[in-house]
Amino acid sequence: QAKASWNSSTGRMDGVPVHVQAEADFCCGLDLARLCSRAFLNCELARHAKAPLVVQLRRSRACMKLRSNGEAFISGTCTVEEARVALKKAARRCKLFGWPVKFKNFKVRLVRWMEPYRPEFPIDILALGQHPSAEIRQSSASQPLRVLLPCTGVGAAPAGVRIEGSFEVEGEQETPDAGVWAEVSADGRTRFHGALSVEELKQALDVIAPILEDHRIQDVVDPRDGDGDRQPVQRRGLGARKRLPLKRRGAPLSREAMELEEPVPLGMLVDPLLAASAAASLPLSALLGQVTEKQE
After folding, report:
1. For residue 219, which of 209, 237, 236, 231 has the smallest C-alpha distance?
2. Gap between the Cα atoms of 193 and 188, Å rounded
3. Coil, strand or helix: which one is 6?
4. Structure pTM?
5. For residue range 80-136, what is the model confidence (pLDDT) as tens digits?
6. Using CA of residue 163, residue 187, residue 208, residue 135, what is the dihedral sign?
7. Which of 31, 35, 54 is nearest to 44 (CA)?
8. C-alpha angle with apex 50: 41 to 76, nearest 5 degrees?
């Protein structure tokens, strides 16, 4: 049953789009200014010397960058095959305008799901941080707590790869060359970094899903229910607490005493005083002073 639940978890990610980063070598120098003006549409070129030619690809929803030394990069929401075809079309376009281009060294740098995996149960993030292979990351108090888990035996990310928005930055921290890593947030959202194909993403999810299952927050059973159905108990601080009516201590009161304990409406006290004050043509304070003197 547990294995079936892991397979269903993998199946839930089948329709999720993927983000692909890939590169290739055109094996020649390129005149980016001429390519920008004559060869490509929807492109822009900055004025500084090392600026790449940026081409927006509408059909594949990706962005391609060409450098003057012949290096080509593509990044966007597409499949690996669509990225390869887009780079080959760019190389063919450059060759059409006179450059001796050869399409070589196509390499996938990164494949990741555009949406995180969301388990159907809450995760105990502190208990997950005690896992033998886990690493807790929280760079500052304003950033949420994250737990990094290696997906042992899955993939091998190339050295020096930059993973956008994740735990690894090229040249500053270690590169996850060992394979795919899972980044788990406190709310259970899980992102995978370092994969080079959709198959590696699914394999990584198959590795992480049972670990998340082992660290799920179990329902608390109310001991007053006995052996009945399991019902989650509302914990302090998770919702509004029900106020219980206050009970009087001591012997029970008679009906007359209960009537005396009931609060008297304010109108029953104020209205007769106002009427008497109007009949005597005296202010209310003077009338109250006379009543007090008679009682004394």
Report:
1. 231
2. 16
3. helix
4. 0.62
5. 999 999 999 999 999 998 899 999 999 999 999 999 999 988 989 889 988 888 888
6. positive
7. 54
8. 50
Which contiguous run of DSSP H or E holds residue 22? strand 18-25
According to DSSP, the residues that pair with 77 across neighbouring strands are: 19
- Give just the sign of the alpha carbon dihedral 252, 256, 259, 261: negative
Give the SS3 label for residue 271: helix
> CA 159, 185, 111, 134 torsion: positive or negative?
positive
Give me 23's structure tokens. Answer: 């590169």
pLDDT digits (tens, 9 = 90+) for 1-50: 444 444 556 667 888 999 999 999 999 999 999 999 888 888 899 888 88
Write down the residue that tokens 């179990």 correspond to. Answer: 218
Closest CA to 189 of 85, 100, 289, 114: 114
Are 27 and 70 contacting, i.e. CB atoms less than 8 angstroms apart?
Answer: yes
- Do 195 and 178 touch, CB atoms closer than 8 A? no
